[in-house]
Amino acid sequence: MREPEHPRRDEITLTGVLHALSDPTRLAVVRQLARDGERKCGTFEVGVAKSTLSQHLRVLRQAGVTRTRCQATHRYVALRRDDLDELFPGLLDVVLEAPDGVVAAR
């Protein structure tokens, strides 16, 4: 299985991250990763078809929010927390703590 491409830290943009986090399904994926750590691709509880989940995971990976690694025939997804905290301090905390559909000002 081929390793997917990931943006380098210096290629991650605020607009790309905000776009990736703007979708409720992708936000649910990120919340699960923040809570549980790395997960196997098929184990997310988001209520969408596998093909739809794959598209959401691709958007998160291409935006630099997640990292996907291959092991044998499985793919594992992890949050790029260190990179995001370095580039945009506090952003992920605000987004993860906000109620669904609302990002409160601090």
UniProtKB/TrEMBL annotation:
SMART domains: HTH_ARSR. It holds the Pfam family HTH_20. It comes from the Bacteria. Keywords: DNA-binding, Transcription, Transcription regulation. Residues 6-99 form the HTH arsR-type domain. SUPFAM superfamilies: Winged helix' DNA-binding domain (SSF46785). The keyword Transcription applies. InterPro entries: ArsR-like_HTH (IPR011991), HTH_ArsR_DNA-bd_dom (IPR001845), HTH_MetalResp_TranReg (IPR051081), WH-like_DNA-bd_sf (IPR036388), WH_DNA-bd_sf (IPR036390). This is Transcriptional regulator, ArsR family. It comes from Streptoalloteichus tenebrarius (strain ATCC 17920 / DSM 40477 / JCM 4838 / CBS 697.72 / NBRC 16177 / NCIMB 11028 / NRRL B-12390 / A12253. 1 / ISP 5477) (Streptomyces tenebrarius).
